[in-house]
Structure formats: C-alpha cells, structure tokens
Amino acid sequence: VVDYLEYVATPLSLKEMTHKCNNTSYGSVAAFRADIELIRRNAYAYNDPAKLGRFGDPQLRDVADKFVNKCDQMLAAARDALEAAERVARGDNDPDDMPLG
C-alpha cells in the first residue's frame, strides 16, 4: 500500500508474525502479545476516520479489535501450557512438567 508508511511507523503483517512463530522467534507470550497489539495499533493508525489512508476503511478498526480479542481468548485457553513451555525454555522446569493437552 503506497501510503502505509506515512501512517504506520512500525509495520508488521500477519505473514511476518507467522514466520516468527514458525522460526520460534518469540521468546515469550508477552512478545507475541506485543506484536498482536502492534497489529491493532497499525490498523487504528491507517484506518483513522479523521485522517484515513488511501485504501483505509474505518471498519477495519473493529476487525482489528475482534482479532485481538480472539487472540486473547486463545492465549487464555492455552495459558497453562504456554507458561509451562516458557518455564522449560528458561530452564526452570523439567520438560516432563509440561501439560499434555
């Protein structure tokens, strides 16, 4: 999108996030969650009704909110497993301590 960088200082796409996930680039749930929030902030910046980007659509702000809410629900549902994985990654636990489900 031609004018995107005029509105967004730190671009990030879902494709880039997928690449980071596949390469285990996220060191923590917090780092992953920060990128989710960056996606929302970028959507808000580019799709601001007061200064809309060339291809902007204010309804995409609602889509971004729904995306973040769904991600938060999924992270909450997997919280125990994610916390266990973080402990193992830090060396705080034995891998046998990880939940199976």
Task: Report what the structure shows.
By secondary structure, the protein is mostly helical. The chain has one domain: Up-down Bundle (Histone Acetyltransferase, Chain A). Helix content is 61%, strand content 0%. Helix 3 packs antiparallel against helix 4. The mean pLDDT is 90.
How many beta-strand runs?
A: 0
Number of helices: 5
CATH architecture: Up-down Bundle
Corresponding CATH superfamily: Bromodomain-like
Q: Spans of 5+ residues with little confidence (pLDDT < 50)? A: none
Proportion in β-strands: under 5%
CATH topology description: Histone Acetyltransferase, Chain A
Q: Please describe the biggest sheet, giving its number of strands, its sense, and whether it closes into a barrel.
A: none
GO biological process, one term: RNA polymerase II preinitiation complex assembly
Protein name: Bromo domain-containing protein
GO molecular function: histone acetyltransferase activity; RNA polymerase II general transcription initiation factor activity; TBP-class protein binding
Pfam families: Bromodomain
